[in-house]
Design goal:
The complex is a heterodimer of chains A (334) and B (447). Chain A has 334 residues and is an alpha/beta fold. Chain A contains 13 helices and 7 strands. Chain B folds into 3 domains: 116 residues, no CATH class; 94 residues, no CATH class; 110 residues, no CATH class. In chain B, helix 7 crosses helix 8. Classes of the chains: A alpha/beta (334), B alpha+beta (447).
Chain lengths: 334, 447
C-alpha cells in the first residue's frame, strides 16, 4: 500500500515537473524546409570519385536516399529509372543516389541512360543523411536551378511516381497540365458520368445513322436528351437526324426551343432550320437561313449542300452547282 | 348408305372446284415467273431481291424441263449467291451459315418486308434464332438493347474473332470514346482496359448494371489469385476484401492517376470505414483512426503522407492490426532485428544496431545513440511503441504523452531542445541529452 502511494506520488510529481518544464519546439522533420536553399554537400561515389554540390550552378538536383534490402527503396529506384527515361530536357538534371550500402541496386543501368548525370554516393556513416535530417528511406529531395528545395518526398506511397515526376518537371521548367501540388491528387476514369453516357448514346446514334437505322438512332439521341435535357449537342444531333428522316416539323421544334450564343452553334442551328424549311417547301426562308449558316460557318458542308438543293428546287442550276462545288471543296480540303 | 353417297358427292364437288380454280403450270419457256397468276407474292413485299424485281428468275434458277416446269439452281452452295454478292466470305472468320452455303437461313432469296431480305423484323430477332445471348439478362448493352447486333458484329465475314467489325478494344472505344480520351491522361491503367474489355464485361449484358461477368471479388480473383490467397488464408483478414463489391471500395476498375488503381488517396480510403470504432469481437474495439489524429500536431511519416500502406497491408496479414511485417505489440521485448521488421522497412536498422553515431539520429547524447540504448537490450528492451505514438501525437517525433504500463498511464514528459532534449518519464528519473554538449551520466547505473 505504502509502495503504491509512493509510486503514485512520483507519478504526480513527474506530471507536475513535466508540465512546468515542457516547452515544445515545432521543428520540421528534416534539416530544411521546402523553399529553403538545399545545403551544399560533397561525398564519395561508389567508384571512388568525389561528387560536390555547390550553389549557383543553375542545375536542378534530385537526391534520393535509399537502403539496399528495403523493398520500398527498390521500388523507388525502379520508378525513378522509369521517370528519368521518360524525362525530356533531363541532361541538366543532376541525380544523386545516397545509399548506406554499396550493392543492392542496379545503378549502372540507370547511369547508362544518363551518363555523367547520375551519381551514386556511398553514405555508410549517414553523414549526408544527418546533414539533410533523413530518417526514413526512400526519401527524395528535389531542388531547382536556384538551389531552392521544391520537394521532400518521404516514403514510397501510392503517389510516389506522379509527385516525383511533377516536381522534376517543375525543376526542369517543363510545362505541365497540373501543378506539382496537385500531382498527388487521385483522379479516376469518369466513364459513368452523365457526360460520358450522353457521349456514348450520341456515338451509337451516329453508327446507327450510318447503317440507315434512323429510328434507332433517334431513340439513342432521345436517351441522351433524357439524361441531360439541356445538352446542346444532343439537341442539335436530334434536329439534324430529324431532318435526315424527313421529320422537318420535329426538327424545327427543336431549333426553336434552343438558345445559342456561340458562332458555330448558331451556324448549325440555322443549317438545321434551313434544311427543315426546304423540306417543308419554304424555299425563301430556307435560303435565308442557309446563307446565314454558311456565312457563320463557311465550312459547313451540310449547309452548302442544302443550299444547293434549295437552288436546284428553284431550277437555279448555276447557283446550285456553285454551292455543291463549294461543299465538295470543303470535303476535299481544296 | 345415303350418308356415304352424300360424302362422295361432296368430295367430287371439291375435286371439281379445285381443278377448275388451279392455275395450270406453264409447259413452255416464260419471260418471267412473277406474274399476277404465278409467284405474285414475290414482287409485292417491301424489299425485293434484285433479279426478282427485274423478273430475271434465271439468274438463280436454271430450267431443267419447260414441259415439266422443273428447275435447278444455276450454281451450287454459296456460289449461287456469291456469283453476284462477291467477297462475302473473303475474310478470316466466316459466319457459319455462310460457310455451309446456307444463306437462306438468314435471307429470303425472293423478297421480304424487312430490310436485307431477312425473315425477322429486326436483326436482333434474326440473330436470336440461333444466338440466345440475352436470355435472362437484366441489363443489356446498348446495341443489344436496341437490337442492333451489327453495330459490333458483321454478318458475313470478318478479320476479327467473333465476327467483330473491328479489333475488340478499338470497337469498344468507338462508342466509349470518352473513356479512350480520358485514358490518355492516366499512368495507371488496368491491364484488361487496354485491349480486353470483355475480360471483365459481358458485351451483351449481365445481371448487373455494370455488365460485369461476375461481381467483385469473384471477378477480380479470376486474375488476382495471389490476392485471393492472401484474403482467404491470412491469419488477420480485412473484412471488406471478402465483401461483395469490396474491391471497389478502394480500387477503381479502369484507371487511376496513382498506383494500385486507388480511388482516392490511401488515407481517405481507409477513413471511409475507420472514421468510427470497429467492434472486433471478444470485447475488443478498434478505435476510430480519426480520433487518434484529431488535434495532433506531429504525425508519423506515412500518416503525414496519407499512406496507411506504409505500415498496413490491405488484403490480409499474418501480423496483428494488418501490419505489413513484424512489430512488437508490447512495451518490453528482448531485442532482435526480426522483431522490428516493420520499422526497418523505412528506418535503417543501424538506428538500433549502432551504439555510437554522429549523424544517424538526433536522439543521442553526444555520439551515444539513445535509440540503441533504449531498444537494443537482451532483456526488457523498450519497443518503439514505448516512446512513439504510432500514428500521431502532440510531441515532436510523435513522442507519446504517456504510455500504458499495466493499468497506469505513465507520462513520458519529453521536451525537445535545439541540440537535444529531456525526458521525465515514469520509467526512469528525468534525464537530459545533448548532442553538442553531452550530459555526463558516468555516475548513473547503465539501466
Amino acid at each position: 500500500m505504502r509502495a503504491r502511494r509512493r509510486i503514485a506520488t512520483y507519478v504526480v510529481a513527474a506530471i507536475i515537473i513535466q508540465s512546468l518544464c515542457c516547452t515544445v519546439t515545432h521543428a520540421g522533420r528534416h534539416a530544411f524546409d521546402v523553399g529553403e536553399k538545399l545545403p551544399e554537400f560533397s561525398g564519395t561515389t561508389v567508384d571512388g570519385q568525389t561528387f560536390t554540390y555547390k550553389h549557383n550552378q543553375s542545375n536542378p538536383l534530385m537526391v534520393v536516399f535509399l537502403s539496399p534490402g528495403h523493398e520500398r527503396s527498390s521500388r523507388a529506384v525502379k520508378d525513378i529509372n522509369d521517370i528519368l527515361s521518360q524525362l525530356t530536357n533531363a541532361e541538366r538534371l543532376q541525380t544523386v543516389f545516397a545509399t548506406d550500402k554499396s550493392n543492392g541496386f542496379d545503378f549502372p543501368s540507370i547511369q547508362k541512360k544518363s551518363p555523367g548525370n547520375v551519381h551514386v554516393l556511398l553514405d555508410s556513416e549517414y553523414k549526408l543523411w544527418g546533414k539533410f535530417g533523413i530518417i526514413a528511406v526512400p526519401t527524395v529531395v528535389i531542388s531547382d536551378t536556384n538551389d531552392k528545395v521544391l520537394c521532400i518526398k518521404a516514403g514510397y506511397g501510392y503517389d510516389f511516381t506522379p509527385v516525383v515526376r511533377a516536381y522534376l518537371n517543375q525543376a526542369l521548367g517543363i510545362t505541365q497540365k497540373k501543378s506539382p501540388e496537385e500531382a498527388g491528387q487521385v483522379k479516376t476514369v469518369a466513364n459513368d458520368t452523365t457526360a460520358a453516357r450522353i457521349k456514348r448514346h450520341l456515338q451509337m446514334a451516329k453508327m446507327l445513322e450510318q447503317k440507315g437505322r434512323l429510328e434507332s438512332a433517334i431513340a439513342e439521341i432521345q436517351k441522351a436528351r433524357e439524361l441531360d435535357p439541356n445538352s446542346l449537342e444532343a439537341a442539335m444531333e436530334l434536329g439534324e437526324i430529324f431532318c435526315r428522316d424527313g421529320q422537318s416539323k420535329a426538327a424545327l421544334e427543336i431549333t426553336e426551343s434552343l438558345k445559342v450564343t456561340k458562332r458555330f452553334d448558331k451556324a448549325r442551328l440555322l443549317m438545321i432550320s434551313g434544311w427543315a424549311k426546304h423540306q417543308m417547301g419554304e424555299l425563301d426562308i430556307a435560303e435565308k437561313f442557309l446563307l446565314e449558316a454558311t456565312k457563320l460557318d463557311p465550312k459547313s458542308t451540310r449547309a452548302l449542300f442544302e443550299l444547293g438543293k434549295v437552288y436546284q428546287s428553284r431550277q437555279e442550276i448555276d447557283k446550285a452547282m456553285k454551292s455543291y462545288r463549294k461543299a465538295l471543296a470543303v470535303i476535299f480540303n481544296e | 348408305m345415303l350418308d356415304r353417297i352424300y360424302k362422295l358427292a361432296v368430295l367430287l364437288i371439291c375435286v371439281l372446284i379445285t381443278t377448275g380454280l388451279a392455275v395450270e403450270k406453264p409447259t413452255t419457256q416464260q419471260k418471267t415467273c412473277v406474274t399476277e397468276e404465278c409467284h405474285a407474292d414475290y414482287g409485292k413485299k417491301a424489299h425485293v431481291h434484285g433479279p426478282v424485281g427485274l423478273g430475271d428468275c434465271t439468274s438463280c434458277h436454271k430450267p431443267l424441263s419447260h414441259e415439266e416446269h422443273t428447275f435447278q439452281f444455276d450454281r451450287k452452295g454459296r456460289d449461287l449467291c456469291e456469283y453476284c454478292h462477291l467477297e462475302q466470305t473473303a475474310k478470316k472468320v466466316v459466319h457459319e451459315p455462310l460457310k455451309t452455303g446456307d444463306c437462306m437461313q438468314c435471307h429470303d432469296p425472293h423478297s421480304s418486308d424487312n430490310k436485307f431480305l431477312i425473315p425477322e423484323k429486326t436483326v436482333a430477332a434474326l440473330c436470336a434464332t440461333c444466338h440466345k445471348v440475352t436470355e435472362g439478362l437484366a441489363f443489356l448493352h446498348g446495341p443489344t438493347a436496341v437490337g442492333e447486333c451489327t453495330v459490333c458484329h458483321t454478318s458475313h465475314s470478318s478479320d476479327h474473332a467473333d465476327l467483330l467489325v473491328a479489333d475488340q478494344a478499338e470497337l469498344c472505344f468507338s462508342c466509349h470514346a470518352i473513356m479512350q480520351d480520358e485514358l490518355k491522361e492516366f499512368d495507371y491503367i488496368h491491364e484488361p482496359v487496354k485491349n480486353d474489355c470483355i475480360g471483365c464485361h459481358d458485351p451483351h449484358g449481365a445481371a448487373n448494371s455494370k455488365m460485369v461477368k461476375n461481381l467483385a471479388p469473384f471477378l477480380c480473383y479470376l486474375c488476382h489469385k495471389d490476392i485471393q490467397k492472401i484474403a482467404e488464408n491470412s491469419t488477420y483478414q480485412h473484412s471488406v476484401v471478402g465483401d461483395i463489391e469490396g474491391c471497389n471500395q478502394c480500387h477503381t476498375p479502369h484507371a487511376s492517376t496513382v498506383k494500385f488503381l486507388l480511388k482516392k488517396d490511401a488515407k481517405s480510403i481507409c477513413l471511409t470505414c475507420h472514421d468510427k470504432p470497429h467492434d472486433l469481437g471478444q470485447d475488443k474495439v478498434l478505435p476510430a483512426f480519426t480520433d487518434e489524429l484529431e488535434g495532433k500536431e506531429f504525425l508519423h511519416g506515412p500518416v503525414a503522407e496519407n499512406d496507411c500502406s506504409g505500415c498496413h497491408v490491405t488484403h490480409g496479414s499474418e501480423y496483428f492490426r494488418l501490419l505489413a511485417k513484424e512489430y512488437p505489440p508490447q512495451f518490453y521485448a528482448p531485442f532482435s532485428k526480426e522483431n522490428y521488421e516493420l520499422c526497418f522497412s523505412c528506418h535503417s536498422e543501424n538506428l538500433v544496431l549502432t551504439k555510437e553515431t554522429s549523424d544517424l539520429t538526433d536522439f543521442r547524447n553526444g555520439d551515444l545513440n539513445l535509440h540503441y540504448l533504449h531498444v537494443n537490450k537482451e532483456r526488457r528492451g523498450r519497443t518503439c511503441r514505448s516512446c512513439h505514438a504510432t500514428h500521431a501525437s502532440n510531441k515532436p517525433k510523435h513522442i507519446r504523452e504517456s504510455v500504458p504500463y499495466g493499468v497506469w498511464s505513465l507520462p513520458v514528459g519529453f521536451t525537445k531542445t535545439q541540440t537535444g532534449g529531456n525526458c521525465a518519464p515514469g520509467c526512469h528519473l528525468p534525464k537530459d541529452y545533448d548532442r553538442k554538449d553531452p550530459v555526463d551520466y558516468s555516475a548513473w547505473s547503465t539501466e
